[in-house]
UniProtKB/TrEMBL annotation:
Protein name (Swiss-Prot/TrEMBL): 4-hydroxyacetophenone monooxygenase
InterPro entries registered for this protein in UniProt: Auxin_biosynth/cation_transpt (IPR050982), FAD/NAD-bd_sf (IPR036188)
Pfam family, one: Pyr_redox_3
Organism (species): Cercospora beticola (Sugarbeet leaf spot fungus)
SUPFAM superfamilies: FAD/NAD(P)-binding domain (SSF51905)
Keywords: Monooxygenase, Oxidoreductase
Record flagged with keyword Oxidoreductase: yes
GO molecular function terms listed in the Swiss-Prot or TrEMBL record: flavin adenine dinucleotide binding; monooxygenase activity
Length: 614
């Protein structure tokens, strides 16, 4: 039965892209010499009570749990100042202090901004600590104004820390994983209902899925003192990656892929762009090093809510044996990218004599060597698949493009990315800078940087356009809104420029016996057609299949932005007590999982965060 709380829940509507607030990079030049300590100390003194005139007219504030008790974006100087002062008083914030040496000028074009970090104490009902990033710029009079603020809950007294976890060490100094080969923990296997044991073991949290989202969260839960397990359908840890197509590789650095604890992908022996087997080994080592409880070859069939006991009963099928557990909370870490394929319905597929599959069912193109291939789509996966077709010896490879595609050149992306993510990086600070800023600010910075690069070094875009590949200036807001639909160039662009991958623009009208027909009447023949057309990132229907439609119909959607510019879905209350989502890429999962752990621990301790409502 669903909780009575559902009757008052309102699902956040998805904003159209033009409804999401937009930011503009300040255009006034940053002085070459400025006294950061003096300027930011002055800001610290003013933070207990801000005045609207201290802020840019279009100022942004993003808060994660510190003041609003949830995840919020606020926009505009008057609104930000008003709500900031209200919440500073309500949460009894004090002791604002600038972190010496943290300010640095971010010069972009002729303008830019200067971000600096702050710490503060939180009083009231949940005493603890918080941190902030405040970005300043000089106005036309030389006075420093606030362009944006980001605030984060760092700790709550008595809850423990989600940020510190020591490896499991035996008395002889060796690391142990506490697992059988099948991933079932030795100390729990006898009490979970398998092998004739029918007593229900109780957990603080049951996590459905053990990819990067599930494992990041599982580690955070152990760090903060929660009894948790992850239930994974694959038969190996990391199977969510090794089951994908052979040519898959990450398009971000190995340093970015680390979990919250340990740096399992820092080895110089690893490639910069990790492959599935690299990821699987790192996943397995992480689970082993920290003694995490992962049940493999196990599918969650249902989760039933008991209003009286405030518990979930989770029914699991492990290799055709059913067992159950009880949990105070359930977290769905079932993935988005790669999990639930989206494929357009195209007429006359039954007439096609070749092979047509979604990228989730594609392994490699070797069986089609000497034949012709088509890739439908132009995102990261499409480029990987097209490159694999070329490398596998297909005589003709064509990529079809419906709309313009954002291409992120590696010669621009890698230097920016490497400033935050490298062998010696402090991931906590890097993640706050990468994933903690207001999204409109991220969009403005990315768009301005790539516009500048295109003007100064247009060769890549011009060469792609000359081959029929229609490009678009990258904007992180658009990328997050689409949950993809872009390409970080790790090599395939050159194959397009060299004519090894052909381009076809326009809409597909139908299959033919030998390939695809397009709206312009043209036809392209192919023996293999791979649809790299993305994934359904809204996991609500998949969750409903487990918890039941009565609950599922009233849960939050995932994907896209709300009207204030905050991401919808993961890591926050979903409309039913003690039910949560987590999903996303490595950095997202690593950083946001700490806030999920804090919320669940607070709830279990009877100190649930109270969401501020306007």
């Amino acid at each position: 039965m669903p909780s009575k709380v559902l009757s008052s829940w309102k699902r956040a509507p998805r904003a159209e892209l033009d409804e999401v607030p937009t930011a503009n990079i300040p255009t006034n030049p940053i002085p070459e010499d400025f006294d950061a300590d003096k300027i930011f100390d002055s800001v610290a003194a003013s933070l207990p009570r801000l005045k609207a005139e201290q802020l840019d007219d279009q100022a942004f504030w993003r808060d994660i749990l510190a003041l609003t008790g949830t995840w919020r974006h606020l926009h505009g100087s008057s609104r930000v100042a008003l709500k900031w002062n209200e919440l500073v008083a309500l949460r009894q914030l004090s002791n604002f202090a600038y972190v010496r040496g943290s300010a640095h000028a971010a010069r972009i074009g002729s303008g830019g901004f200067v971000p600096g970090r702050f710490t503060f104490d939180i009083g009231g009902d949940w005493t603890g600590t918080g941190s902030a990033i405040v970005a300043l710029y000089p106005d036309s009079n030389g006075d420093w104004k606030i362009w944006f603020l980001s605030t984060f809950l760092e700790s709550v007294d008595g809850l423990g820390s989600p940020d510190v976890l020591e490896p499991v060490v035996q008395t002889d100094g060796s690391i142990t994983n506490g697992h059988h080969a099948n991933g079932v923990r030795e100390d729990t296997a006898s009490s979970n209902g398998v092998n004739g044991h029918h007593s229900l073991e109780e957990f603080d949290v049951a996590i459905v899925g053990a990819g990067q989202g599930g494992l990041s969260t599982l580690g955070r839960f152990k760090a903060i003192g929660l009894k948790a397990l992850a239930i994974e359908s694959h038969d190996t840890i990391g199977g969510n990656w090794t089951s994908r197509y052979d040519g898959v590789k990450l398009h971000t650095s190995r340093y970015y892929s680390n979990f919250p604890f340990g740096k399992h992908f820092n080895s110089e022996e690893l490639p910069y762009y990790l492959r599935p087997q690299d990821l699987a080994r790192g996943f397995q080592q992480y689970v082993a090093d920290y003694g995490l409880d992962v049940r493999l070859s196990s599918k969650v069939e249902s989760a039933t809510w008991d209003e009286e006991t405030q518990r979930w009963t989770v029914t699991v099928n492990t290799e055709n044996e059913k067992w159950s557990l009880r949990a105070k909370h359930i977290v769905f870490a079932i993935g988005t990218v790669g999990a639930f394929p989206a494929r357009p319905e195209i007429p006359s597929e039954e007439s096609y004599r070749g092979t047509a599959v979604h990228s989730t069912a594609f392994k490699n193109a070797i069986p089609w060597a000497g034949k012709k291939g088509i890739v439908v789509g132009t995102g990261n996966t499409a480029h990987d698949v097209a490159e694999d077709m070329v490398d596998s010896g297909l005589t003709s490879v064509t990529m079809t493009q419906r709309t313009r595609t954002m291409v992120i050149p590696m010669q621009v992306f890698k230097p920016l990315h490497s400033r935050l993510y490298h062998a010696d990086a402090d991931l906590a600070s890097s993640d706050r800078a990468e994933w903690g800023l207001p999204f409109p600010v991220q969009g403005a910075v990315s768009k301005t940087l790539f516009e500048h690069w295109r003007k100064t070094d247009p060769a890549l875009y011009d060469d792609l356009e000359s081959q029929g590949f229609k490009t678009e200036i990258p904007n992180l807001v658009t990328i997050h809104n689409r949950s993809g639909g872009h390409y970080i160039d790790v090599g395939a662009a050159q194959k397009i420029i060299d004519g090894k991958i052909h381009m076809k623009n326009g809409l597909i009208s139908s299959f033919t016996p030998h390939g695809l027909r397009f709206k312009d009447g043209s036809e392209i023949e192919a023996d293999l057609i791979v649809f790299a057309t993305g994934f359904n990132v809204n996991i609500r229907n998949q969750v409903a299949a487990i918890v039941g439609n009565e609950i599922g119909e009233l849960l939050e959607d995932s994907g896209g932005f709300d009207l204030d510019g905050e991401l919808r879905g993961g890591w926050k209350p979903q409309g039913h007590p003690k039910l949560w989502y987590t999903a996303g890429e490595f950095g997202q999962c690593r950083f946001y999982s700490r806030f999920l752990a804090l919320q669940i621990k607070a709830d279990i301790e009877g100190r649930r965060f109270q969401e501020w409502k306007e």
